[in-house]
Amino acid sequence: MQSSDRYEFPLTTLDALNDVVAVDIDCTRTKVVAADAGGTIQIWERPPNDLHFKKVQTLEVGEEITCMTTSDDFDIFLTGSRDAMIRIFVYGTRYYQAEVLSGHRGSMRDIYLSHDKKTLVSASDNFDLRIWDLATNSCVQQVPIGAVSVERLVLTEDASHLVVSCSDYKIRVLRRNQKDLTYSMSESETITAHSTWICGLCVSKSGNMIISGSEAPESKIIVWRYDKKSKSYQAVKTMSEHKTSIKAIVMARNRPNLFASCSSDKTIKVWSINAGRSLHTMRGHECIVSAVSLSPCGGFLVSGGWDRKVKFWQVKLGIPEIIFLRYFKRHKLINKLPFSLFREVLSY
After folding, report:
1. Could you give the CA distance from residue 81 to residue 111 in angstroms, rounded to a whole number?
2. Helix 321-330 / helix 339-346 crossing angle, nearest 10 deg
3. According to the per-residue pLDDT averaged within each range, which of 1-15, 178-192, 232-246 is highest?
4. What does the DSSP 8-state code read for residue 94?
5. What is the Cα 54 distance to its own chain's centre?
6. How confident is the model at residue 343 (pLDDT cuts 50, 70, 90)?
7. What pTM does this model have?
8. Per-residue pLDDT reduced to its tens digit, 214-249
9. Contact by Cβ (8 Å): 110, 152
10. DSSP classification of residue 328
């Protein structure tokens, strides 16, 4: 696929204390949180009309952090650590550690908080995948996944689908039972996806689309759509612009055609699913880019890397499709547009 030649540079660079393992940006684009491998969590804030972030809090976990998940409103975030513990931090006047969840038998691989903040999904070494009820902070299910470890996991917005990537290079889709919080899987919803580890994974709000990204030497991003006739996920796009391992993938919540990826090639890319190619390439990290987060509209992005830097970017998007179509329809110019321009704008 032809790649974009639009290169972007960060608006702001923040200093982490160790290699960054996870980052997130809130919906107002004024707060950033980052967790690093040294067991430190840092929170930065900025005024709405200012691009300069100020560090407002530092939290010490005391153990190597391996993963993090946050609520949409940033009122709660959770970390998973090498010591098999999950720590819950909540916001009062400042963030504080409110609870520690135990039960896993190995280092935490990934955790994911549901949109309604009621359910937590966690995975660790030793083939351990668990569902937690955060109303009682109790484990309600140890999901039978077989003799494979989970590398990445994500939930749909209504938590009806749980999508996991596994050590056998397959993606498994588990559906939530209507009567309780438990999940189950059918063989028809196992996707033979890649030939190497799948370290990038995201899912659309409804669960009808999955995007996966693999480690080197394959280094591919594949877009999967659910086909109702075959009752299975089918690959509809394959993109290979990253030069080496894809480390993370995230979708823009309010722009489902847009997603971002980060890679060991020191870049972040913003992609259009419709166009099947990258729209922007972000350069500025000096080492592996290990984490990325997109604002809901897709206009801002935060990345973190092994260079111990957190970078804040603006994504210069094109004219939204609906504004474009309404303008030219109103002025009766839609038939006078060159097809190449029409196709380019709709690719955003």
Report:
1. 10
2. 140
3. 232-246
4. S
5. 24
6. very low
7. 0.88
8. 999 999 999 999 999 988 999 999 999 999 999 999
9. yes
10. H
Percent of the chain with pLDDT over 90: 71
Residues recorded for the chain:
348
Largest CA distance in the chain: 64
Residue for token pair 């938590």 = 159
**CB-count exposure of residue 129 (10 Å: 0-12, 13-18, 19+):** buried
- Left (φ > 0), alpha (ψ -120 to 50) or beta: where does 314 sit? beta
Which residue do the tokens 């877009």 mark? 223
Q: Are 156 and 205 in contact (CB under 8 A)?
A: yes
* Residues of the chain above pLDDT 70, percent: 88
Contact yes or no for 78/66 (Cβ under 8 A): no
| pLDDT of amino acid 318 | 57
Task: Give me 254's structure tokens.
Answer: 């309010």
What are the residues whose beta carbons fall under 8 Å from the beta carbon of 245, sequence distance 6 or more? 199, 214, 215, 216, 219, 263, 264
- Cα 282 → chain centroid: 17
Non-local CB neighbours of 228 within 8 Å, separated by 6+ positions: none
